[in-house]
UniProtKB/TrEMBL annotation, chain A:
Residues in HTH cro/C1-type domain copies: 5-59
Keyword Cytoplasm tagged: no
A GO molecular-function descriptor: DNA binding
Pfam families reported in the protein's UniProt record: HTH_3
Name of the protein: Transcriptional regulator
Keyword tags: DNA-binding
TrEMBL record, chain B:
Transmembrane annotation, as ranges: 20-41, 53-72, 93-115, 121-138
Protein name, entry field: DUF3278 domain-containing protein
Keywords associated with the record: Membrane, Transmembrane, Transmembrane helix
Length: 64, 156
């Protein structure tokens, strides 16, 4: 789940700081989510999915 | 968002907000336990405890606990993850500490008045210096903790 978000962000050419700014979070929070050390709220998940132009399933659903 | 007057004191970022709420909850929980214990000692075991002193001491201890948890958690400087940003923030910490020291000196002088003996004079010099050093120390601890944490999280 976590790495899918990081991979997508890198594919989109966004830095953690840029993504953080778009979703009204801090770079630290984005880093923690990507490392799997913090479970974001549904609101933040949706904001991240919208910013990365993906669905929640694409980013956060476990599986292949 | 949950409606509460606390929202006015909490940051926008949800992780930081959650951590601070935990610190506040820990403080409240510990205060209740400590007050219960002191009440038990005073009213059941007849210990001679000064209630005024306890009442006066509780709020500063609660504030200090939350502040120390915040400082040591490394969540204050969320954007500091490179050496450059760290150095820049360190310079800011020095300037801020000195400014706070000056403000403290002025307030101290207003409250205590112009010293008319040797001891008051020493107080007027020593207290702002101690305040400035401690302020700077906690600023640096917070900055270092944040930097260390962020360095491990960033990949930019």
């Amino acid at each position: 789940m976590v790495n899918k978000m990081k991979l997508t962000r890198v594919e989109r050419g966004l830095t953690q700081a840029q993504l953080a700014k778009q979703v009204n979070a801090t770079r630290q929070t984005i880093g923690l989510i990507e490392k799997g050390e913090y479970n974001p709220s549904l609101n933040l998940c949706i904001a991240i999915a919208k910013a990365l132009n993906k669905t929640l399933d694409d980013l956060f659903w476990e599986g292949d | 968002m949950i409606r509460s007057f606390l929202n006015a004191f909490l940051p926008e970022d949800e992780y930081k907000r959650l951590r601070i709420l935990y610190f506040m909850a820990e403080t409240t929980f510990l205060s209740v336990i400590i007050l219960f214990l002191l009440g038990f000692l005073k009213y059941f075991l007849n210990f001679n405890l000064d209630t005024d002193f306890i009442l006066l001491l509780t709020p500063p201890i609660m504030l200090a606990y939350s502040y120390f948890r915040y400082v040591f958690s490394g969540i204050e400087h969320t954007e500091v993850s490179s050496k450059n940003e760290y150095m820049k923030k360190r310079r800011t910490a020095v300037i801020r500490s000195l400014s706070m020291g000056v403000i403290f000196s002025i307030i101290f002088l207003i409250v205590k008045g112009i010293p008319n003996n040797w001891n008051d004079g020493i107080d007027l010099i020593a207290m702002p210096i101690i305040f400035t050093v401690l302020y700077f120390l906690f600023e640096m601890i917070s900055l270092k903790k944040s930097y260390k944490q962020n360095k491990n999280l960033t990949d930019d």
